[in-house]
Amino acid sequence: MLALIAEAVDDRSARGIAAAVSRLVTAGTLTAGTRLPTVRDVARSLGVSPTTVSEAWGSLARAGAIQTRGRSGTFVTGAASGRTRLRYAQLGSTSAGLPRDLSTGVPDHDLLPDVTAALRRIGDGRLTTSYLDAPVLPALQDELRARLPFAPQRLTVVDGAMDALDRIIGVAVRFGDHVLVENPAFPPLLDLLDAAGASVVGVPLDTEGLSVTALTEALSQSDPVALFLQPRAHNPTGVSMSAARARELAAVLTGYPRVTIVEDDHAGDIASAPPVSLGTHLHDRSVHVAGFSKSHGPDLRLAAVGGPAELIDAVADRRLLGPGWSSRILQAVLLDLLTSPDTMATVAKARDEYARRRETLLSALAARGVPAGAADGINLWLPVDDQQRAMVTLAGHGIGVAPGTPFLVSPSGGGDHVRLTVGLVRDGYDDLADILAAAARPAGGNGSGSRARPHPRGWR
């Protein structure tokens, strides 16, 4: 294998090595599933530095030609299409066309604030006088800084939380780096880390956030460069980090100064839990992403990113070669929404309504002996005996849910799950709980209170 790669490489730059290996994959010389030699072995064979080979492997991973599998090694992925490999693509693939699609993880449109008045108030939208204007409107910058749970060295605005995570990974993570995430985690984050060639290590959660014991073990065994977490309304479990847990985690992380902490506060103002951040304790290496899609509207496509100057400046500089900045018209709309008393009241009402929906369905499930996680946010994490059977059963009732498997970094040992967007369930909780209970139980299971009907009435 080493000799084959060495013979194919005529340009020993990172670009040249990546091109040579890509040609071998395209030609079928390196077939899908082939395990590649280690970075150090290839570097030694070619007489280049391991950094050069790591850069080449990173380019190949982003192109989808190879994939790292942690300690198992790096493998050729073959010619499968990128979409079939994405965890994200699996979430709603079985729910298309079902009458009640609860797989989406999106907010209830009717609980979002109306932006019509805000659009009128910002005038004709002539907010940009030059391509060299600051990327964030000054008044919005002040408002966002006041809202973040700690004072960041720098703050910028990007096109949503996932854009923020993508750009942070591009700056902070290199091919082969170990990265810690929650297990379960948000599938698109896992997709982004896979594309960057990172070796992902999952850390389990309890009711207060990341397990301190598990984090300590992962830090000591993997030498990671970054930790990604959701501080509240965790998707999919609904867990919110407590202030006490944040202090404990920060104390552990103090001994690992190389680790950059990235917090995705995606639920924002619809979260019932107060904002808690590791940045309160470790502000010099914490990045906080504040999203507004769930609370103020997905089409705003805006998120604030605050953190260390070196990292945020690198993100902003790289954006100059692409979009340059996020629409200042949308920024003005967001500023208006964040400071409008009417909008603040609307968002507070939505937060209370989401809490009511969660608590009502959780109570209905508990009465049927079915445990579930939905402490905060708009999602419910339902343990089931068999994921596939549960999804088929629910689909038979016209209900679409997301499979639990794409959320898992590695098998958690806690059994199968499905995720459903409880924030979209407005009423009919008893009917829905009957169906969910029947789907969660083993085949032939008959627990008390189960009276599922093929066509439930009164819920939507």
From TrEMBL:
Keywords: DNA-binding, Pyridoxal phosphate, Transcription, Transcription regulation. It comes from the Bacteria. GO terms for molecular function: DNA binding; DNA-binding transcription factor activity; pyridoxal phosphate binding. This is DNA-binding transcriptional MocR family regulator. In the C-terminal section; belongs to the class-I pyridoxal-phosphate-dependent aminotransferase family. Gene3D superfamilies: Type I PLP-dependent aspartate aminotransferase-like (Major domain), Winged helix-like DNA-binding domain superfamily/Winged helix DNA-binding domain. Residues 441-460 are annotated as: Disordered. InterPro entries: Aminotransferase_I/II_large (IPR004839), HTH_trans_reg/aminotransferase (IPR051446), PyrdxlP-dep_Trfase (IPR015424), PyrdxlP-dep_Trfase_major (IPR015421), Tscrpt_reg_HTH_GntR (IPR000524), WH-like_DNA-bd_sf (IPR036388), WH_DNA-bd_sf (IPR036390). Pfam families: Aminotran_1_2 (PF00155), GntR (PF00392). Residues 11-79 form the HTH gntR-type domain. SUPFAM superfamilies: PLP-dependent transferases, Winged helix' DNA-binding domain.
